[in-house]
Amino acid sequence: MAKWLVLNSQDQPSFPNPRDVQTEKIIMTKNMGDLDRVVRFLGAVVLGILYFAHVVSGTVALVSLIIAILLLLTSLVGFCPLYAPFGITTQRK
Q1: Phi–psi pair at 28, nearest 5 degrees
Q2: Distance of alpha carbon 51 from its chain centroid, rounded?
Q3: What digits encode the pLDDT tens for the residues 54-74?
């Protein structure tokens, strides 16, 4: 029987109160400095221009568009998920 499934006194399955379940919080603190964010933004712009100007095509175009979107998102948010597990930060202290 699963841990989250509990039988009550009438042998009917019941679920625990969601307020009783402890959840882990994921905190996205900024781990990118200004220079890192600017470089990522400019890289996203360059890749976007290459894609929309049809300089690249096929699989390379699709991969460059995906990378451009990821670079743009991380530069706007200021958080790089690849830096987090390693404790890397480019912010000045």
Answers
A1: -100, 85
A2: 23
A3: 999 999 999 999 999 999 999
92 band by pLDDT with thresholds 50, 70 and 90: confident
Output the DSSP codes for 39-92: HHHHHHHHHHHHHHTTSS-HHHHHHHHHHHHHHHHHHHH---TTTGGGT---S-
Please enumerate in sequence order all residues whose Cβ is within 8 A of that of 33, keeping only pairs 6 or more positions apart, or say none.
Answer: 89, 90, 91, 92
Per-residue CA distances from 1 to 5, 13, 40, 44, 52 (Å): 7, 11, 48, 49, 54
* Residue environment code for 14-51, b if the CB has 16+ CB neighbours within 10 A, otherwise e: eeeeeeeeeeeeeeeeebbeeebbeebeeebeebbebb
How far apart CA 64 and CA 48 sit, in angstroms, is 8
pTM reported for the whole predicted model: 0.68
